[in-house]
Every structure is written in structure tokens, then in C-alpha cells.
Amino acid sequence: MADNDDIPFNRDFPLKPGAVDEARPGVRRILCNNPSPFTFTGTVSYIVGKGNVAIIDPGPDDEAHAKALLDAVRGETVTHILVTHTHRDHSPNTARIKAATGAPVYAEGPHRASRPRFESEKHNPESGADRDFRPDIEVKNGDVVEGRGWALEAVATPGHTANHLAFAWPERKINFVGDHVMGWSTSIVAPPDGSMIDYMASLARLEAREEDLYFSGHGPEIPEGPRYVRFLTRHRQAREASILHRLAKGETDIPTMVRAIYIGIDPRLTNAAGYSVLAHLEDLVARGIVATDGDPVIGGTYRLA
């Protein structure tokens, strides 16, 4: 089964690093020059409003990107800095933007895992966590952050990280969805930082909302957002079915499942694929469908219960 062959991905994103693009009235975006197999062409930062503005996701520890953001808002006042989640390609530049503007920082909270680490887990699979980040103001699901001419509602979307938020602009039917939904690829869900149980519930939360244009942390905007979320949900359900199909042949480990399920995967993503399978297995073990000896961990073996 080829990976991701059931989702209408859009990898057409010609935005150049440092250029200011007015994607919609009141929404500007700037691409950071940090391309990788995990970030696509790089992290996208957003500027919301005109005159008095908010910056969403200042990006990685990158002086050139901070300068591009500040140049884009020259003559304007940055009143808010919003952060969707604490991965190192999204939040570290916050310190530079805050130092330059004095704007308060809004986010769900510091980085944390979705569950406690098991004794047998020797290393941290999410080496990309920004553990130094602290918001000035912690926001929860349903909180509204308002500026002049805009009001953004925090939508709790844990799964990719435990502290992930989307920021919806209901009046414009726009949602800034961070890394929870991306148009170019599926999101990585890597326990213990990520949780497939949370991720699926967050997809359902987004699908139930009325915003239909999504702006993502990487890649192009996503029209018909709730419809696209249904593709993602079906894809994850199909991935679960593939895991169960492989387990029906007998007990096995995660590397064997990755080889069977992710045909033709970029070798640089093999480790991430293993953690995605682990995320599904955690969910399946919790539901009593799959069994393992001890805790569900990356090095474990798994069988149908």
C-alpha cells in the first residue's frame, strides 16, 4: 500500500523565503528558509490584521526570518504574538519578536508530553521540542484573543503535540491550524509527545466547525478544510486497518509493520513512520484490540488481542 495515496495533497507552494504574501485581506504570510523532509519548504508565519497586528508562529531560531517579519510590519504595531505549539520550527523566534515589539505571547502552555514516559523508553523521540518556551498568557479551548479588526478563537487540537492550538477567525471562516492539518503531507504523531487518540478527536473537533479555509504551518492554504479533514480521518483509519491486517498474519514488531505498510517511503522518514505506527498501536492497545508484553513502546512486539 503506497503511503498517503488516498489524500488529495497539494505540494504547489511557490512562496519564496522572506517574501511577504497577502494571502487574503488581513492575512499575510512569510516563509522561513528552513526546508526539510519534515517542514516541506519551511515554516510559514502569519500576520493577522492591518495597523495593529498579531503574528502567529514566529518560527525557528532564525535571525533572518525575524528580520523579515519585523520588516513586514514596519510602521505597524504588533499587539499579540500567538504560538500554535512548541516545536523548534515554530516557537523559538518568539523571543526575538517579543524583544523587538514588547507584544505579549499567547499559547496553550509550555511543552509537555501527551503521557508519562515509560521506564523502558530510553530516549526522547521528539528531539524537536522547544522546552524553553513559556507564554505570557495561557489560553484554552474557546478563549478569544482580540485585536483591532480581528478576533481569534483558540481551538484545542492536541495530537501532534499535547499543547497544540489552532486559531480560528470565525468571522472570516478562516482557521490557522498549525501542524495539525497540512496540505502537503500528513502530520507526524510521535508518542509520548504526540497521541493518536488525541489527534483523531482533534480532527473531529475541526471537522465540526464552520471555518472552511485553513492556513497551515507548512505549505499552501487548504480550501474546503472540513472535507480535507475527512480525507485525513479516512487515511488514519486505513492505516489502522493496514496494521491490523499485518497483525492478522502473526505477532510482529514495528520495523516489520513499517516495511509492510509504507511502501516507497523516503528513508529519512522511516523513524517517524515507526512512531506513527506506535501511536496507532497505543490506541489499539488502549481499546483492547491489540496486545503487547508490558507497555506499548517502539521496541515492543505486538499481536491481535
UniProtKB/TrEMBL annotation:
Q: Which organism is it from?
A: Bradyrhizobium retamae
Q: Where is the composition biased (Basic and acidic residues)?
A: 116-134
**Record keyword Hydrolase present:** yes
Q: Where is this region: Disordered?
A: 102-134
Q: Where is the Metallo-beta-lactamase domain?
A: 41-218
> Keywords for this entry?
Hydrolase
Could you tell me what this protein is called? MBL fold metallo-hydrolase
- Signal peptide from the UniProt entry: none
Single GO term (MF): hydrolase activity
